[in-house]
Known about the structure:
Elements: H1 3-24, E1 30-36, E2 45-51, H2 61-66, H3 88-93, E3 97-105, E4 108-116, E5 125-128, E6 133-137, E7 144-146, E8 149-152, E9 159-161, E10 166-168, E11 172-175, E12 178-185
Antiparallel strand pairs: 1-2, 3-4, 3-9, 4-5, 5-8, 6-7, 6-12, 8-10, 9-10, 11-12
Amino acid sequence: MPKKQSTAAREGEKYTAALRREAENPAAPTTYSYVPVDDAGDDHVWARIVEDCPRCPCHAARVCADGLWHQASRPTHAGGTPYSGLCPCEEAAKVPEPRRLTIAFKGVIRTLEAEYHRHGVMRGRLRVLGHPFRGEPDDGSAPNRCGMVLTRSKVMRTARDDRGDTWLVRTRASVGGRPAAITGWWSDEAPED
């Protein structure tokens, strides 16, 4: 049997078992989450049973934990009426979480203020506040202050926040909307030639 068919068969067995559990205990707080899978074809989706979110009445726990509100269908109450309120988990995630970041860059270690984003375009990234770095634009214009956006890393340990998460330092930034390279820490003193 080809790999895709055997995987689909296993997922089908899981779905059937989930339906059986629901029939045995209809009061169990569960919802179905339909997840499209790339290698399963355009029309095929696999179903997984997941727990309801304990912090909101409108989404599955996986949706709120992974920040997948944009992929979830509009929630409904148990009676089938549409849920009209805002999701409290999603609204709380829109506010960036303040963190303190200890970063080693160009041989200098500093502790900086940062914001961790759990929602939107910056989801899962850490943004350094205050523009503490020197950025030199690719077009040769004057260097200026810039910030840095970091991504999670379990391999590179050049930056660590107060939660113990490790982050990957990125040397690319933007200065005045122009692509730039981060070359060091910003200093208000005149550069030495």
